[in-house]
């Protein structure tokens, strides 16, 4: 378990710095959004970036397959299994009833 120093509020202190160059229009938009949420510009930007990063990582991780799963998926696409007998019967009944 990673030990972290916490401040009085129980949060890890912010010690690293990020910088970004933005247009005046972007900064005005970010400042307005921060104001609407009652946050500082820094808090708004950090929270927004963190949320976007977490969603990106979640989406990426959800799409990752193990090597075994990948092989099963590809082999199923290349050589799908034959339909079960009950499925064949159901398809036959459907064609008889609908004339298709």
Secondary structure layout plus pairing:
Layout: H1 24-36, H2 41-63, H3 67-78, H4 85-98
Helix pairs in contact: 1-2
Textual characterization of the structure:
By secondary structure, the protein is mainly alpha-helical. It has one domain (24-98). 62% of the residues lie in helices and 0% in strands. It is elongated, with a radius of gyration of 27 Å. The N and C termini lie far apart (62 Å).
Largest sheet: none
Structural class: mainly alpha
Q: How many domains would you count in the coordinates?
A: 1
Instruction: Count the E strands.
Output: 0
Number of separate helices: 4
Shape: elongated
Using only C-alpha atoms, the radius of gyration works out to 27 Å
Helix content: 55-70%
Low-confidence stretches: none
* Element pattern in H and E: HHHH
Distance between the termini: 62 Å
**How would you state the average pLDDT, rounded?**
89
Strand fraction? under 5%
In short, what is this structure?
The chain has four helices and no strands.
């Amino acid at each position: 378990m990673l030990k972290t120093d916490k401040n009085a509020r129980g949060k890890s202190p912010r010690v690293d710095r990020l910088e970004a160059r933005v247009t005046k229009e972007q900064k005005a938009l970010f400042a307005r959004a921060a104001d609407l949420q009652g946050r500082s510009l820094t808090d708004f930007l950090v929270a927004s970036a963190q949320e976007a990063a977490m969603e990106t990582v979640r989406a990426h991780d959800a799409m990752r397959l193990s090597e075994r799963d990948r092989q099963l998926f590809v082999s199923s696409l290349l050589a799908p299994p034959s339909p079960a007998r009950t499925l064949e019967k159901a398809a036959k009944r459907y064609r008889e009833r609908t004339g298709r």
